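Record type: monomer structure entry
Structure origin: computed from sequence
Chain ID: A
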Amino acid sequence: MKKTVLVTGGSSGIGTAIVKLFAEKDFRVLFTYNSRKESAQKIVEQLEPFDVQMFHFSQGNLSSQEALLAKLPDRIDVLINNAAVGSATVKRISDDRFVQDRKMFEINALGVLWLTEAIIPKMTENGGKIINISSVGGGIFHFPGFLLADGMSKAALTFMTKQLAAEHAHTKIDVFAICPGATDTDMFQSSTLNKLSDDQRKAFVEALPKKRLIHPGEVALICEFLSQEHSTVMHGAVIDCSLGLGVSPGMIKK
């Protein structure tokens, strides 16, 4: 029987890479978008031979969550909580720093908590995998120059991962967190790279561990590994996939 994966924030960056890989691996792929409807539609069109569906979802909004849940099937095998905002992308929502802080927690932490709690009953009978996409900033280490609420919300996500893992130590549900570092996505472009000149950008990337950015597809491959039965031995793991940035944080100076 084909397995079903739900990917939040699948219309760009890491989320899109996850959607494409899981479709190619013969999953039934359900993914959400918020403001990028055209991008989501293009992804569905590109993956037309596969079983891929898109749904609007404003993470952290309970009314939007209820509308999403009403459209989902009774069984979800894999939940990948990928939707998030960063220190720069949250500014597209509001110029008010207090609103930004609140949105960080609503989207990055509370929204993930609420959706996960709602999806768990769909995994109870057959088991499942919950994969939270956190960040090396907050999830593993701390970096100056980013909004405090950014790292705090990601730290909350990794705590939630460990707490849920403890609660499901004796069930058929496995829980993980992945903490990427400097990844070539719109979010990282907005928060860091777009502020730099070409020369500064080149120097920045050269200073990173392995002297390169992470490709979204690399994170997708880790998600695909965790979606398989053999990942159970890693239940509760918070995975640093930052090319070493998490153990050498001084390489980034904001």
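Annotation 1: Residues 97-119 form the longest helix (23 residues).
Annotation 2: The two ends are 49 Å apart (CA to CA).
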